[in-house]
Amino acid sequence: MSKISVLVVDDAAFIRDLVKKCLRNYFPGIRTEDAINGKKAQAMLAKEAFDLVLCDWEMPEMSGLELLTWCREQDNLKTMPFVMVTSRGDKDNVVQAIQAGVSGYVSKPFTNEQLLTKVKQALNKVGKLDTLMNSAPTKMNSAFGNDSLSALTSGKPAVASVAPAAAAVAPIARPAAAPAPAAVAPSRGLLNSPPVKAPAASAATGGRGQGQLRLPNGIQACVIKALSLKEALLVVKRSEALPQVLDSAVLDLEQGDNAEVARLNGYLHAIVAHEQKPDSEWLQLTFRFVDQDAQKLDYLSRLIARGTAQKHFIPGA
């Protein structure tokens, strides 16, 4: 029996690797290939057949929506399952993708189970689910359950509740393949600034220098302590469900009066207590960007430049 083949398209290598790992972990017999953008994917689809495409929306050279539109114009690709995996979860974007002929929609950040559910649904529609399931184990490898691909959720996670600041911060769990404990230390670059006085509670909920961090376990308001083209240093209120090093996440930033919003994909590189005490009420997160999209980089540049006159921004090189 022939293998099911899947093409993973995303400009972020980190996301491509996580998606492929999830698929191969649950379906050992699956074949996965990847492309860095829609243009590369288009060339691959013109040369060989794939049973499913999992594609990001915002990419350089050719976007996911443009690739989807092209696929639906090709006689041999009109019915090929095409699932959009993106941080663009707004209703207007979903409608636009549906009108273009998308088979399924997964919003970042998502969990492994949610991604796999969409994959099964898409293949079931074209009668290929049985082929896929023949290669699946009886249950998902539990060691993979805490992987950072618990990243992309199709729905709005509940806001995590704040836990009493009475106990010490719990150790950060890492997946088996994660680096040694040094991974939880602050990075040594621009954002390696020492903890400062914790912000007032109202500072984490609105105003300048703030954003929204979408994590696998919920949505949290955050204060942006420092920002560069590669990473952001964020301060969030400690919650009952602690974030994990290497968790994938989406940082939503809004700039100026025009309400321009950027959805920046990335992962948590480091997590430390914001205050120098074991019951710190605030956490300091180093969030590294994985997007290579030129529009997002331009947005960050403008945001950093604008931040020079704002209290909460410390622009970097």
Short description:
The chain has 317 residues and is α/β, with parallel strands linked by helices. It contains 7 helices and 11 strands. It is 24% helix and 24% strand.
Write the layout of secondary structure elements.
Elements: E1 5-9, H1 13-26, E2 31-35, H2 38-47, E3 52-55, H3 64-73, E4 82-86, H4 91-100, E5 104-107, H5 112-125, H6 129-133, E6 210-215, E7 218-227, E8 231-237, E9 248-255, E10 260-273, E11 282-289, H7 294-306
Parallel strand pairs: 1-2, 1-3, 3-4, 4-5
Antiparallel strand pairs: 6-7, 6-9, 7-8, 8-11, 9-10, 10-11
Helix pairs in contact: 2-3
Describe this protein with a few key phrases.
317 residues, alpha/beta, 6-stranded antiparallel β-barrel, 7 helices
Could you walk me through the main structural features you see in this protein, from its secondary elements to its overall organization?
The protein is of the alpha/beta class. It has helices at residues 13-26, 38-47, 64-73, 91-100, 112-125, 129-133, 294-306; strands spanning 5-9, 31-35, 52-55, 82-86, 104-107, 210-215, 218-227, 231-237, 248-255, 260-273, 282-289. The chain is 24% helix and 24% strand. Strand 6 (210-215) and strand 7 (218-227) form a beta hairpin. Helix 2 packs parallel to helix 3 (64-73). The termini are far apart. Residues 138-208 and 308-317 have low confidence and may be disordered.
